[in-house]
Structure formats: structure tokens, C-alpha cells
Amino acid sequence: MEANGYVAALDIGTSEIKLVVGELLGGTLNILAEGCAPSAGVKRGAVVDIDKTVQAIKQAVEHAEAALGDQVRSVYVAIEGEHIQIAPCHGIASVKREDQEITDADVIEVINSAQVMRLPDEMSVIDVIPSSFTVDQQTGVVDPRGMLGYRLEMHGKMVTGSKTILHSIRRSIERAGLKLDGFVLGNLALGMSAASVDEIDLGIGLIDVGHEKTTVSVFYRGDLVYSYILPVGGDHMTRDLVYKLNCKYQDAKVAKEEYGLALEEMADATEGFSFTNINGEVAYEPQAEISYVLEARIEEMFTLVLNRVQKVGVPALSGGYLLCGGAAALPGIQELATRVMGQKTRLYQPSSIGVRHPKYASAVGVLKYVLMSDHHVSKQNLEKPDVREVVPSATTADRQSDTGEEYDSTERESKNGFGRLMEKLFGV
Hints:
Layout: E1 7-12, E2 16-25, E3 28-38, E4 42-43, E5 46-47, H1 50-68, E6 74-79, E7 85-94, H2 104-113, E8 123-135, E9 138-141, E10 151-162, H3 163-175, E11 179-185, H4 186-194, H5 197-202, E12 204-209, E13 214-220, E14 223-230, H6 234-245, H7 249-259, E15 272-276, E16 282-286, H8 287-310, E17 321-324, H9 333-341, E18 345-347, H10 361-373, H11 375-378, H12 418-426
């Protein structure tokens, strides 16, 4: 895809598989095509049936190619789930040039050196995300390129995931006739693309409400400091209606999507849902009753999210909360979230035509993150060293990352490639 000047991002969800193709024009993201297909081979972010997943990917690709008028050859994939682990990492490298000026090659080498550690056999490195650099004795450096020094250090985070799950995703993509450009941490990309630099610095919470799970992320002082998977999502709302209405799952889904509201008080007394219940009897349910069930479940979900966020230790989320994900399209959910969370909450959905729905937020986030940071250029030379020694114990996605570093906000003249990644991460 890069040869044609555009990039494709794939979001393999439990309910749907979304593909978005775009390009960067004058600093603005331009969505060229999108494709969407029902997902039957994925469970909570993991591929459980490769054949069904391959067919769904092919269907999403066909839809996108019809609008694009070109072939989609490769994709970046949004990756998240309970198997993802984020741990602090540290790399050290000597500056190679005789004049001691630090170049891209030195930055790549120090990032590669951070991967020389022993991992559990079942885990694999997905990405290394720099937080800051140290040049000789100067700490807190955001972009070391162009500086003079003898010793370069990097402090950051290493993202790892289950080899089995990553292999299944990779095989599904390859069997669908695509090349995998790389994995991108979905909640990081989404937060960096949906929130402003000031919001990420002052503190903001990201609530991505999916089909079977809700991903909670907290950004503070320019960094992703917390991530947690809450095993509650849109599917639970639908199943609540199955029991309330005593109906089939598909009927409950229609009731939720066409008549459901997140706030009972918003219901129209003249609206309701006619259906045939499980006993074969014709039944009718007022919109208020449908919304009452949904409000109870969603309020419980946001309460659990709030309890988690309050334990993070961030002084205050001055930026409030961002709400996205397919299940976040329910009318009234933004207002309910604001009530429960006690802070302003806004619904995020991409602004481009064709993807103006919260369910496309993750795919568009990956696309924007890759294009605006030149991630596909700046990290294409990163290698995964075969030798792994030393051992910081990997933390789970539920564990906080270390923060507390002061970030240099000095403007630099050159911000291409790796520099634009630094700009998006740290606002410099």
C-alpha cells in the first residue's frame, strides 16, 4: 500500500472486521475507502476460527477495493486484548559516528537494544515505545537526533503479546492474500489520534466500548499510563434484553439498535418494539422498558470503569473522557457517562465521510497514528534480536506504566520520520 501513497488499517473485532484505507494530504487525513464485514471467527480479540476470519477479512477488503478502485496489498493491524502486556524497558547504545552526532541509526540501535531481554516462551515483542532519552548525562531528552554524545540511553515501554494469538492473526491476514505491515497498539493509537496534545498532557480517559469487552485507557503527561480490559460490552446489553423480552438474540439486537436508549428518560411513550417471543407469541415492549434495561447495564459498566480509574493514582483527568467503540453509538450514552464519571465526556467518531461512526474509531486511529507519525518509515528497520537475556518481569495490561519524567518542549527544526512520532507522543 505504501508504494501507492496510502496505507490500510485493519481492526479485527469480535462483532465486525473493519478496514480503512487513507492517505495524508497537507497534514490532513484523507479517507479513501472503507470496508466492513461480520466477524464470526473472533472471540474477545483472539482468532478462534481462522477460516471464518479469513473469509471476513476478504469480504471487508473486497468492499474497500470496490470503492478504492485499486488492490489492497498490505495492512497495519490494531492489536489489543487481555494477552497484551506492557512493561518498562531500557536500552543503551554507543554513538557510532566519529563526530559523535546522533543519527536515526543510533536511535534504531538503542531501541533494538531494549529488546535484548528474556521473555516467556509464549510471548513475543510487538513494539517498543520510547518515553525519553538520555545523552551522556543529559536526561529527559525527547528527540536526541542531531545532538552530540558518546552514550545514548532510552527509557520506554515494551509491548508484548501472545505468540499463539499473534500467529493466528498473522496467518489469517496472509491467507486472505495480504501482507502484514505491522501491529499497532490500538488504544495507544486511538488516544494519540483522537485526543489533543494538551488533553494527553493534562490527563484524559479513553473508554472503548466493544462487543464483548470495554478497553479503559488513561493518558497523563503525554503518556499511556494505564490500560485495562473490562469484560463487559455491547453483547451483554443485548443479552439483558434477551432475558427481559424472552426473545431470540437477533430480535433483542434489533430492539437495542433501533429502539434502545441509554437513558430511560429520553424514551418516547408512543414508541415500542413488536416481536415474536420465544414461545411464538406476538409481543410488544415500550421503548421506555427497553431503555430501562440498557441504562441499568451501562450505568453499572461506567461505575466499574470509574472505580478502576480512581485507583490509577493520576491526580485529575482534566481532559475528561473520550467515548468510542461500536456499542457507544447508543443515543444518550454520552450524557449517562458524564453523570456517572462526574466529568465531561464526549463521544468520539471519525469526521471523514464513510467512517462517521464510533465503531471505526480504532481503525482510523491506527491509520492516523501510522501516517502522521511516519511509523511505517521510522520503525521499518527495527529488528527483533534473537539473543534475549536479562529479565524485567513483564507486567499485564492492567498494570500502570512508570511516569514522572519531565518532557522537554523545545521546538526542533526537523520533524520527519521518527521526529513526527515524537511530536505526536510528546507534543514537541
